[in-house]
Amino acid sequence: MNLSVAGGPRQSVLRPIELEKPALAEAIHKEALFGAHRLFDPAAGVEREIDGDTLTVQQERGNAQILLNEQGSILVTLPLERSESMMAELIYERIQSQCGEALGFAAWLLDHIDPTQRLSHVAVALSLSNAEHMAWRTQRESEASPNRMSMGMGGDNNSAVHVNRTRSALRLDSARLVEDLIVPLRR
Asked: Is the pTM above the cut of 0.70?
């Protein structure tokens, strides 16, 4: 799962020296492990890297990663949570939860790097990689028929869905924002 958040109006919110400070990478690492929106697995190590104007904080072997650039654009990449079933399925509630956690983390990170809210609007995009042949089911449907499912025609789940909102919607209207991102992907 890839969740991207780009703020506007487009401007630099981090100076190059601020992006390189170890305290920023440490704050991201700490929040991703122990914060309100946990994205990282505490059992895996973390690597940090600066490439051009982008800071990357990622788990070993790239299982989960957070990218942040000088303009305050954020990319959160998480592995899709798999069901216990042997079937290739996407559980709606799990994707919804992961998206909500990634969105909450992005809101925290924007508040951390831009506390005066110079970035007043956001464009949020969500995509699911390698999910084109997986069926969408609810947790209830999966539990009711764990070994049986109808397969669709393999829609294009690799396409991204995006929405534009005010930055305050990341916190105040996050549940609706998550639905607005996930429902079109499920179609």
From this structure: yes
Nearest to 67 by CA among 109, 95, 97, 100: 109
The answer to whether the beta carbons of residues 108 and 171 sit under 8 Å apart is no
Tell me the C-alpha distance between 99 and 148, whole Å: 26
Could you give the CA distance from residue 10 to residue 120 in angstroms, rounded to a whole number? 10
pLDDT digits (tens, 9 = 90+) for 78-88: 988 765 555 56
| Consecutive H or E run containing 49 | strand 46-51
Strand partners for 121: 8, 166
d(CA 155, CA 133): 7
Separation between Cα atoms, residue 103 and residue 89, nearest integer Å:
23
